[in-house]
User: Fold this.
Amino acid sequence: MTPEYTNRRLRRMASMTSLVVAFFLVGVKGWAWLETGSIAMLTSAADGLVDVVASLVTFIGVRYSERPADPGHRFGHGKAEAVAAFIQALLLAGVALALGVESAKHLITPEPLSAIGLGIWVIILSSIAAAGLVSMQTYVVKRTGSTAIAADRAHYVTDVAVNLAVLCALVLERTLGWTRADATGALLIAAYMLWNARGMAVQALDQLLDRELDVDCRKRIKAAILACDGALGVHDLRTRHGGDRMFVEFHVEVAGDISVHDGHEIGDRAEESVRALFTAADVLAHIEPAGIDDKRLDHDLVAMTGPLGRK
Assistant:
């Protein structure tokens, strides 16, 4: 069983589990909101409803991203995961804004709650379920690097934080009689949801807009190339995250008097060294003689950003 096949099964398992848990939690929280009248519980239930939609988006995005390359998509379909993550961020932000407005209204004119004990137990049960799901998703993200699963995990990390805020609000209202605790907790939850949506959107856009990998990762790539016998230099390194894999292109410099066959072998070794750094990567090396004076992407980038620009 290849690592790529194992990763695909892990992504599918994680997306399906997330969907089942999302349906369960939104049902339980919706029932608890009807019983208690808590705006914080409504906020948590609404967040759960977003989780259901987000999990469906993840479920579809993960499966679409697994499609092999075809004549119309020769780089594959991996960015479908980033699209799914961006849709999740938009959904979360929209719900956060709507609930923030509703929470502010209840903060001004608070309403008494009922069946608070039931609400507390529902939140405890929901927290345990969400925490278990986050643990499983964390393992899958570490193994596969899936953007969509990472975005879905961010939803459930938010869900755990939301549950804790709701729990605090209900306990304060029950023990201290603070009638605005529920609305205050809901307003804080909405703000946290909005902040979390921003982070998810930024991460997804980094992939959709082909942002380079971080500086340390690029340094490791260059070191791996230069460690290959016969590689005298490397330039015009270009990288991007494709959702289910990394894409790496570079020019590797070799001695000008060797045969084309020998140069090709050096390029193959350099590509294999880079692939070994990632779970899955498409790597392309261009071979050229060392010391030639030609037009380079690196020169253009330095001209645009200065000598301290990103390299």
